[in-house]
């Protein structure tokens, strides 16, 4: 840690860890309900546990993004944060928003708009938090006078995420209109601007961990951002196939969304090339596992499994089935959960007392159990989804009858999710078992002599 104010990131990461653990409790609860009968039917029905599961996911991942940004920006701009106090106020407000939203869902207080269920007061607090966050980061960069391409992509991704939240603040009476704009937030987040955030964290980690040349890495980052924009924006139409809009969205959605995996393939190739060139020089090999792992798993979950059902001719069968859940899990985990875990693993040795730079064996167990558990979960959702499509949509069996036939896959889901949960539990224990201690690094910044002035303006 080279800047004192970077220590705020620890508390963001700590909140993210607790919410991640809680997310899994509600995931497991949701999964067991598929096996029925449900003793909690009148207290905690499936719709409530699923909303809490997915909302906790979004809140903890965003908390992780914020913490990672507060860690990365001081290093990139070579300056303390503008205001540590504001960063803490933001964290408190944000956590209160997240926790009260969850309590509200328990009492069915929400808008019912999938993934954007937060009631209006909560949404307004989200806006306030984002404004505080962007102001703090913006002022830090402005005062430092140093702005790298990597942090530029990060800030652009974060600011665009805030802007894209606006359609979610409005209420639409017509369901087609409502769903049309819902994707401006959800799709353009996960397949647009969040990819810029991921790309920036990836570039930062690869530059730091592999010692790869900043200029080369940043040129590649431009290519990736370009690909995200070309494919991702019109790719939104892959959600418009069956929602009541004109037919021309079908070819547009099919064509552009099929190009989306290119950016993900680019990121994986970029990570692999950096790793090969460096020969794994950095001592924090655990962080390197998470970094490369994230690029590869995202290519699998988002790129490959997204492509699998993005064609209109396939999607007409799979839309809204467990095939979607298969892809949603692998994509979200690979791209966004893993990149946050990579940033945490990279930053943690400097934030805690007595932790070895190369990571503990508990840390490696956490990595491999999570990877294998999530892979198994993806396969369980996939087999359940394919069975569901065949029985329900091709054979014409009723929804509940088809669900009974595919129960065995939910046993597999719970078994593999348990492996995954052990991996997450180990990560959380490993996170908290060393007391926080924020010691400034005595070593010089390895980049200080080598960074070319062209990469900073
Ligand atoms: C990191 C990137 C990605 C993440 C986190 C992600 C996540 C998700 C999630 C959570 C859903 C369900 C949304 C809902 O129903 O509310 C979804 C749907 C979908 N995704 Fe992705 N996705 C990503 C990238 C991609 C890519 C690159 C493609 C195509 C190549 C793709 C194709 C689709 C399709 C076609 C659907 C709609 C499924 C349906 O009709 O039910 N996704 N995605
Ligand atoms: C213990 C581990 C987990 C279990 C047992 C679990 C289980 C479930 C279940 C049963 C659903 C509802 C599927 C449906 O609508 O029928 C769900 C939804 C979802 N979960 Fe998980 N989950 C777990 C972990 C995760 C993780 C780690 C992530 C992301 C990083 C995640 C992301 C999602 C998403 C995005 C949805 C909504 C998908 C959709 O609407 O199609 N889950 N989960
Ligand atoms: Fe999409």
Automatic annotation (TrEMBL):
GO terms for cellular component: membrane. Keywords: Membrane, Transmembrane, Transmembrane helix. The chain crosses the membrane at residues 9-31, 51-73, 85-108, 120-141, 153-172, 184-207, 219-242, 248-274, 286-311, 331-352, 364-390, 410-432. Pfam families: COX1. It comes from the Bacteria. The keyword Metal-binding does not apply. The keyword Secreted does not apply. InterPro entries: Cyt_c_oxase-like_su1_sf, Cyt_C_Oxase_1. GO terms for molecular function: cytochrome-c oxidase activity; heme binding. One of its GO terms (biological process) is aerobic respiration. This is Nitric-oxide reductase large subunit. It comes from Kineobactrum salinum.
